[in-house]
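Structure tokens please, single chain.
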Amino acid sequence: MDWRAWLNGLGLHVPASPNVDAIVIAIVLVAGAYAIGWLVAGWVAPRIIVALARWAGCLEGITLRLVCVVTRYGIASLLLLIVGNSTALSPIGLMIVATALGVALAILVFHVGKAAGLGSAVASIIAAIALVAATAGTLGGMEPLIEGLKNVGFSIGARRFSLLGVINSIVVVAVLFVVARIANRIVVHSVGRLHALDMSQRVLLQKLASIAVVVIAGLLGIDLLGIDLTALTVFSGAVGLAVGFGLQKTFGNLIAGLILLMDRSVKPGDVIVVGDTFGAVSKIGVRAVSVVTRDGKEHLIPNEQLMTEPVENWSYSSRNVRIHIPVGVGYGSDLPKAQKLMIEAATAAARVLIDPKPSVWLKSFGDNSVDHDILVWIADPELGVGNVRSDILNRVWVLFQDNAIEIPFPQRDVHIRTLPTTPAPANP
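Here you go.
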């Protein structure tokens, strides 16, 4: 294949003997653009990281190295684009600049796609498309390229499917995915900084904002791809039927989660008991509520279950929770002194509130002991109640030992009235 003839067909007239001066000038321009991008990125990247942390919080996968790479090749691409469109270059020089622009833009698109979670394969495809489009556009050959992509395809009825349409769909979907993800992160972080609202209201606004971002991105994608919504009437009816039968639980959990956030019956930070699960609510998701137990286990409870089953919310109206700690005292002990020591042990515990103050109730006269209840209040139930009981009981044990207060244990008295008589063995 004669490459000069091919370039001439694209409108680029390459001389038989390339001009060395033009090649050197193009190489200097490319090297200068890359050098400026490198220098500016070292100064701008740390400031971009600070701005991202302020506006979008901690973005997963966004590192200083990634920001440096994106800034470096972004500036280089911008400078090469300006050079290619505003400087009179020879055909061979323009080809060098166009190739350098395509490479810089491909590297930029690849790293942005990877950071947005597109995956290596999809990011590589988008980068290859950017490379070809940038190079061809700078060389003035986009029209032949577009026409060639349009001609590769097939028709189904009145609808034409071409390679250009496939590439356009991939690019539009990828760009909208990246933009929607970044916009969603910024909106969620911005709403989280509204301290005038309580936690439940902030989470509700974050969920609604996330849904709005997804809907807007979907509508923009439909408009950019030129999809006729009337052609999707039958398909939408089938999807509605599938949602009604197959995804009923999923949408039920979504609506239940929004209702929980609106009526604020369960909100992040609450300590709840659902069935055998006891823990603090970490977050209310689209499908389930995350409850972290004191063992560090995270239970995912469907939102609908919290709407239909009884739920104990220890912090619904007040975070103060009362704990009952049973203690038995021997019948021969000084009860007023034992009760005073129990109050002393409860008051000395770190997490026990002074107001309401601890109290001791005499419950009953049991078979082996005089049964008491130590009643204490705490204001941080998410930290657990077992450690409070253990702390108080350890103090009670030490105080009872030091003051000769008996802690009884079960005892049984066995009275033997008669012994069975056995006949004496006969003499042999």
